[in-house]
Amino acid sequence: MMKKFLIAVAFATLFVACKPKQPDTPKLDVTGSWELSSVSTKVNVGGEQVSVYLNFTAEGTFKLYQKIGAGRYTLFSGSYTIDQDLKQISGAYSSNTAWGPYALECSETTLVLTPVNGLETDTYTHIDAIPESVTGNIY
After folding, report:
1. What is the DSSP letter of 130?
2. CA 20 to 30 Å from 104, out of 34, 45, 57, 98?
3. How open is the CA angle 104-108-111, to the nearest 5 degrees?
């Protein structure tokens, strides 16, 4: 009787041990430079042309260059984290002002950020680097 029990346990363990590994869900990774390519909004942004460039580092820091209308870019920097389970990104500016969370969709070429309030969707296109005409033209 005991022998049959041990054989049954060993047999069951074999099936558990041989269970095929589930494929890992790819991690969301925003590292690199991005240029705002479109904004879909439910609010009026005043008709001004907006130009935004983002750079995220693997160390969890970012630089954001933003220009509204004519003139120079304003540089914002800070840190970010990604919640892989919720597929959200959030962070804080260097002034300790929090930002986010944003729902996050990301591929090698496209980054889509949608605030949890859902008022706009910002789509970015991956670029090799932020142009010097941007990084050298800040307040």
Report:
1. -
2. 45
3. 30
